[in-house]
Amino acid sequence: MATLDTEKPAKEKAEVRRRADLIAATIAEIGHSGSLDVTVGRIAKRAGISPALAFHYFGDKETLFLDAMRHLLTAYGRDVRRRLGAATGARGRAEAIVGASFSEQNFHRGSIAAWLNFYVLAQRSPQARRLLDLYRRRLASNLSHALRPALDDGAPAAAERIGGLVDGLYLHAALDADTSATAARAHVLAALDKEIGAPA
User: Fold this and answer.
1) Could you read off the pLDDT of 2-30 as tens digits, one per residue?
2) Distance CA 85, CA 79 (A)
3) Which one of 5, 83, 94, 101 has the fewest CB atoms closer than 10 angstroms to its CB?
């Protein structure tokens, strides 16, 4: 009985690891191809897993894509919370949110291509649309909460403008390989300064 108890967690850990490998491979393949036109076979090969096992874990390609999107959103949310925990003041908190959007983990080619293509997927997939709507609502809410001490009732409108600029510059990077995270972040912070006043 003790052997069975030890085997079960080991199998569960292996499954968690394989799922994580498949999600990482999905993001990498989308980044490599620049589109969602990738096969589960190619993703599984990159992950070192059989296509049959990939289908067993996720059921179909769209579910795998959606889980990759959830992974990106979870990592982004964790980074936002970490940065906000160390930030002070309206500008500092807004800058923390902007910094997470253009962080190294969120701004590499695979993530950028994945985000662009998930926007495309959201045009035909209600689940993808819900995920992207959730992201947009959280971004607007986080920015609005951060800006309220400085802008009061003007915070929600300013949050919409800053959030739109974040998304626009991020997606622009999918079309322009020369766009750097540093430059994109600087553009958003310049707009932020116009909203609340440049820092002293």
Assistant:
1) 555 555 577 788 888 999 999 999 998 98
2) 10
3) 5
Cα dihedral 99, 100, 104, 109 sign:
negative
The label of the residue with tokens 């912070």 reads 189
Q: Distance between CA atoms of 23 and 68, rounded to whole angstroms?
A: 5
Write down the residue that tokens 């300064």 correspond to: 193
Q: Which two tokens stand for residue 12?
A: 């569960």
Tokens of 183: 């430059």
Question: pTM higher than 0.90, yes or no?
Answer: no
89 half-sphere exposure, CB direction, 13 A CA radius:
7
* SS3 sequence of 1-18: CHHHHHHHHHHHHHHHHH
Output the CATH code of domain 2-196.
1.10.357.10
Positive/negative CA dihedral, 108, 184, 87, 146: negative
**Tokens at residue 174, please?**
């999918």
Of 111, 38, 110, nearest to 79 by C-alpha is 111
